[in-house]
Amino acid sequence: MPRWESDAQGRLERAALDLFESQGFERTSVAQIARAAGLTERSFYRYFPDKREVLFAGDELEAHLVAGVEAADPGLTPFEALLTALGTADEIFRPRDFLLRRVAVVAANPALAERDLIKLADIADALTGALERRGVEPGEARFTIDVAIAVSRRATSRWLADPDAALADLIVQAADELRRAVAPTR
Amino acid sequence: MPRWESDAQGRLERAALDLFESQGFERTSVAQIARAAGLTERSFYRYFPDKREVLFAGDELEAHLVAGVEAADPGLTPFEALLTALGTADEIFRPRDFLLRRVAVVAANPALAERDLIKLADIADALTGALERRGVEPGEARFTIDVAIAVSRRATSRWLADPDAALADLIVQAADELRRAVAPTR
Lengths: 186, 186
Fold this sequence. Notes:
2 copies of one chain form a homodimer. Chain A has 186 residues and is an all-alpha fold. Chain A folds into 2 domains: 1-49, Arc Repressor Mutant, subunit A, CATH 1.10.10; 56-181, Tetracycline Repressor, domain 2 (Orthogonal Bundle). The first copy, chain A, has helices at 8-23, 30-36, 41-47, 60-71, 78-86, 96-108, 110-132, 138-161, 167-181. In chain A, helix 1 packs across helix 6, helix 5 (78-86) packs parallel to helix 8 (138-161) and helix 8 packs across helix 9. The N and C termini of chain A lie far apart (53 Å). The mean pLDDT of chain A is 92. At the A-B interface, helix 5, helix 7, helix 8 and helix 9 of A face helix 6, helix 8, helix 9 and helix 10 of B.
């Protein structure tokens, strides 16, 4: 059982998802989430700054990806270093059934969909720093990250739908599709 | 002189930018923007649903890009059709000095930066529909759009910095860089 299954943060995340599904995001309070998780409101705020944040797992993914880029073989291109890091994201992903429910709840609530976009932009900013430390010029870094995130989105949506697939393999597949999609026709 | 220079919408946009720069986004009211533009609050709401929207020019860009994709040569790949449309965005861009000031104001105000992300996501959604009408499967459409938008962001940031460059040329240049950046090293 992954660590989060049994800890307070995990209980809060699952309680929040249950409540957002059953009664909607807007009508759910932090107090209700904490109570459903058997915790106090004060405990909630130890893990999350606000209600919108509870489905976004703090900065775990960002920290994991930055560490992955920093640890990647220096001989890799910036794009390859990013894909290598993004291919390990499933190491810290929540269980697939939780993520599938989460995707639906986020899509149904504009406040959560906005937070999702902001989180992704924050991750892109953090990765820009990680690539710059590998000697990549900032504009090129940002460009390469935008493209790598597109590859990751394509791979992750397939990973969510296919219990037998490995995320790293799906990223390789999506990168191959990218190369074909951008090939000149002439 | 482009149409927006002399019309009410343009006056509101310029007044808002002046006020956001001089006193900050949070401290500026819709009433102040309208007054500075020589218009009523009621007129403001004829053009924009709220204060956050005033720097985002309604749905002009989205409509322009969707029309561009729909009009693109059916023989073009989805990626080429998108780049062709994105390369004409400067036809409806505001003047460069306005856009440069706008970039700085948006970056300095989290509420505007969020709206910027949401606008971009809305444009991506709209373009997905346009590609689907060209027969592209939704997942592939979204992926290709994410990549094309990355190319467009790279090109547009250069266009803003270089008064002599044509956006369409910078998009071709960024697409070439993309092909090099994603090439396998083996």
